[in-house]
Please model this.
Amino acid sequence: RADGMLHELAPSLALGLSRIPMQRRPGPTDLIALGHVMRRIARAKPDVVHGHGAKGGLYVRLAPNARRAVRVYTPHGGSLLFSNDSVAGKIYLATERLLMPRGDLYLFESQFSANTFERKIGHPPGLVRIVHNGVTRAEFEHVQPAPDATDLIFVGELRKLKGVDLLIDAVARLRGEGRNITATLIGDGPDAAIFRAQVERLNLSSAMRFRPAMPAREAQAQGRVMVMPSRMESLPYVVREAAASAKPLIAARVGGIPEIYGPLAGNLVPPDDVPELAAAIRSALDRPDTAAETAAKLRERVAASFRLESMVDGILAAYQAALASLQSAGRR
Model:
């Protein structure tokens, strides 16, 4: 899917497109990737070099030949998931502090990420902007459930951080009450085998099915109510995409999700709480009209505050401000 999307984009990219493998954890291959980034900067001579995520931000800020460009860093998960309670956390956060002066623009996708960065790492010396990621116009079209749609659907990476185990336990709890609830889990991840074993152990194989990753709107059609029981998030696209299509949604009150919900945040469920999650699922299935009404209100909220056009305008304005600052400092 990534190959296909990038192939479509390539003709529009004046500076070209190149890809190189990148490991999540630090390692010797980072030197290869950094060298690749430096060669791209040397050839393209860009006005802006934007590193997204902790590893991308590392390359941008370490590259010595990026100094004459605006060095932009968007922290997204990565280092922000760690704390000083572990050795790894101490190393990652200390590295972030050391690199912080080498960023010209810190572009956060949520207020939550900006607050977390400041609390764990510090206040960046460069420009700081918060620009919410947006969704396209096409995402606001309704998605009809497939003929074999289950009651519930989860879309995302299969890892404990996403709370998939909580959803499985909630389904087991509701089926224990005599409810014939079904669910589809879409995605893959490091804990997939653990979740499959949990489904087997709780005798839910006939009630829960696993599906591979697929395009968002195709995934939304696989269930009638989407459940996002995450233990931690930043500003998840899957929540905004579901909200844009007015898909009834149950989500945890974590990370930047309350920013998406705004005045509707009272509908969020507490994280890591199976009884509350089960109660929210029960309510959504028993009162579909109420769930649909809330989904319609959330759709209006996303349409007003999270459109792609607003995101593009906000990012370009931040780039221009950083460029002006760089020129006044005499670095260009």
Notes: The beta strands are 48-52, 70-74, 105-108, 127-130, 150-155, 183-186, 208-211, 223-228, 249-251. DSSP finds 13 helices and nine strands in the chain. The longest helix spans residues 308-328. The two ends are 38 Å apart (CA to CA).
